[in-house]
Amino acid sequence: xxxxxxxxxxxxxxxxxxxxxxxxxxxxxxxxxxxxxGRLASGYRSGFVRVRQDxxxxxxxxxxxxxxxxxxxxxxxYLSERTNLRDQRKLVPDKNYGD
Length: 99
Fold this sequence. Notes:
The protein has 2 helices and 2 strands; from the N terminus they run ββαα. The protein is mainly alpha-helical.
């Protein structure tokens, strides 16, 4: 528990990970501390599941990125063709705009 002279107290629960919560200004007694610690402890599981899912997604994204790394852009020919057409269009004056 960390007491702040100007702010509500913070409670921490440390283990494999550290979680914290801020107590209400009005409720800082022993029961409020125990309730806050209980909420932190019960939230471990859902937090763990969420972080595990985030890690799975990040690993999948990394695998996808590594698989594409060093390969050419699959639509390079199409992009090049469109770029050339755009550049040619810039060279031809547009009669509707008086160029």
